Amino acid sequence: MGSLSIWHWLIVLLVVVMIFGTKKLRNIGSDLGGAVKGFKEGMREEEKTADAAKVQDQSAAANAPAPAIDVQAKEKS
């Protein structure tokens, strides 16, 4: 009684199809698929911009002049 068998899931699926209809379920499925696809594209775009910023920071650091070192020499007496 604690777990649902395949027959329980089939009955639930049948009730859902009867309530919403196949056309609406198809639309929901395509909308959900489009949302997942958009999310994945957004993640890839974010990775590209982060990688580009990282490369730009590294090239800027490589092209930056070395910091001047101010050293005062003291003579030993």
UniProtKB/TrEMBL annotation:
Its main location: membrane. This is Sec-independent protein translocase protein TatA. GO terms for biological process: protein transport by the Tat complex. The Tat system comprises two distinct complexes: a TatABC complex, containing multiple copies of TatA, TatB and TatC subunits, and a separate TatA complex, containing only TatA subunits. Substrates initially bind to the TatABC complex, which probably triggers association of the separate TatA complex to form the active translocon. It is found in: Cell membrane. One of its GO terms (cellular component) is TAT protein transport complex. InterPro entries: TatA/B/E, TatA/E. The chain crosses the membrane at residues 6-22.
